[in-house]
Amino acid sequence: MLIKHSRSKKPIKIMDPDCAICSQPALAQCECEAKGLDIAIRQAEQRMMNSVLNEIRAWVRGHAQDYILSYFSMLTTRRKEQHAANIHRMTERAAYYFHARPHPAEIAAADAELKRGIDEDWKASVQKYPEVLEYFYGLVDLTLPGDDEPGVRDPPLSALAGVAVGRDRERKVRLREPSEVEERRRMRRRSRERI
C-alpha cells in the first residue's frame, strides 16, 4: 500500500500486517482486533478499577445514608414538636372547658396523625436518594496523569523498555483525597447553593 509521508509528501510503501486474531489480510478490515481490544479493556478495568469503584461506592453510600437520616431526623423533630404543641393545646382546652383530660379518641387521632406524618417524612427522605447520590458522586475526584508525565511518555512496560514480564506492578489508579483547600471551596459552594 502506498501512503504519503506527512512532511515530505513522498509516497512511502508500507505493509499492513494481517489481522492478529484471524489472520485475514488488512484489506478485509475485519473487526477481530477491535473486539479483542474491547475485551482486553473490560478485563483491565475489572482488575484495576473494581477496588477503586468499590471504595467510591462505599464512601458515597455512607455519606448519602448519613445525609438522608439527618434530613429525616430534622423533619421528624419538627413534626414531633408540632404534635407536642397540639397535645398541649388539646390538654389546655379540655382543662379549661371540661376540667378534665382530653378525650382518649382525640389523643389517639393526634397520635395517628403523627404516625402518618412520620411515614410521609420517611418517604420524602428516601425519595431524595437519587439527588443525594448524584451530589456525592459529583464530589468524587479521580485524577488522570498528564500526557507529559514520564510514566505516560515512557511507560516501563516489557515490550518497550525490556523490563522482565513477571515484575509485580503496583496499582497506578489513585483516588485523590480532597485537600483542605478543596474541602473549604466545596463547603462555600454548598452554603451558597443553600441560600
UniProtKB/TrEMBL annotation:
Residues 176-185 have a biased composition (Basic and acidic residues). It comes from Hyaloscypha hepaticicola. Residues 176-195 are annotated as: Disordered. Residues 186-195 have a biased composition (Basic residues). This is Serine/threonine protein phosphatase.
